[in-house]
């Protein structure tokens, strides 16, 4: 399904169905002269709690009797596909949720409008967004979205398996060499393997691989947050990051075979199929099973990600932004909807339910509350110091296939890491050249 999403976005980019992406004018409805409906299309999980979206709907409909707000929540692929098809056929959408790596692509395809005038007018909103996130709401000098929430990735381990191997169950490995040594010692295949990270044909495979790449200071292109001219992922850093996976699979034999079959880290880890796991969050399963936080801490450990001996600690963040669609009926009301959603008291319920991290300074007053309710929340906050984002390139969605294919070819020993990445680099260069 994600390939369909990529195809749709590339079609809009290639055909140039929309030009520009500047701010749409407000209609007379903002002044209450006629009824207006705002259509909000977001992910299903963000509307599973009353706040912030349903609460915002109630607040605004009470404030503006002429306004009706329709909210729809869909899965990842369905949401993006419907956004692109609806806006592409000039159907009204007003506020949409956009995955942060796709923001520049949405701008270039003319699917969303600039909110620069609103951000510059509402200085408190602009200044409230933490600087590291503020940068990734801009494209070619304009703001196009407001960060809703984010997360980071950390390492987790099964304390029972680690302790049984005579290792310290309270301490995570600091380097990849230490991770490999511990995983070799602690695993007991086929019952459980030493390590899991996704290696299949998924976006998650690329996102998780960015962490070892960033540990070495590598990048995908020569300008991951600008206007790239060529791929550089086949340099020394990229080759070493892929070779790490190759050795985990073939030399040290610690990689779970599930890595090629599923990108659901939570299920793999909760199912006790691995010792160490990158980026699982089994708290949902644990809490549904009646576990207390104390029991959770007894069973699972977490730490910052390991690094290369000559590298730096690194992690990767995902997240979503709220944007105003090109086909909005009323840009000002859409902006007010976004501002209301982003009030700290509205966000708290969502952040607790989904273990999200703050993107605004105003959420800092709830850090104590979140720390008491969400396991390892302080660790996730600390990991924000070391986070990186997916390349901010309009063609990023189209680059995923060559990258995860290269990772697969190398780990399955159908090519060396260098050969596989050279091929990926050639494909990415072709993508960059076909603007």
Looking at this protein, list some descriptive labels:
435 residues, alpha/beta, D-Maltodextrin-Binding Protein, domain 2, 2 domains, four-stranded mixed β-sheet
Describe this structure in words.
The chain has two domains: 2-152 and 317-388, 3-Layer(aba) Sandwich (D-Maltodextrin-Binding Protein, domain 2); 155-315 and 393-433, 3-Layer(aba) Sandwich (D-Maltodextrin-Binding Protein, domain 2). The chain contains 20 helices and twelve strands. It has helices at residues 2-15, 53-63, 76-88, 103-108, 116-121, 123-128, 131-134, 159-164, 176-186, 203-215, 236-251, 265-270, 283-288, 293-299, 331-341, 344-354, 367-373, 377-383, 396-411, 417-433; strands spanning 36-43, 67-74, 95-99, 138-139, 142-143, 146-152, 155-158, 193-196, 274-278, 300-303, 315-324, 387-389. The two termini are 23 Å apart. The model is unreliable at 1-30 (pLDDT under 50).
Number of helices: 20
Structural class: alpha/beta
Reported for the largest beta sheet, the result is: 6 strands, mixed
Shape, please?
globular
Gap between N and C termini: 23 Å
Tell me the count of domains.
2
> Are there runs of 5+ residues with pLDDT below 50, and where?
1-30
Rg over C-alpha atoms, rounded to the nearest angstrom = 22 Å
CATH class of the largest domain: Alpha Beta
Strand content: 5-15%
Corresponding CATH superfamily of the largest domain? Periplasmic binding protein-like II
Label the CATH architecture of the largest domain. Answer: 3-Layer(aba) Sandwich
Using DSSP, what is the number of strands?
A: 12
Question: Overall pLDDT, averaged?
Answer: 92
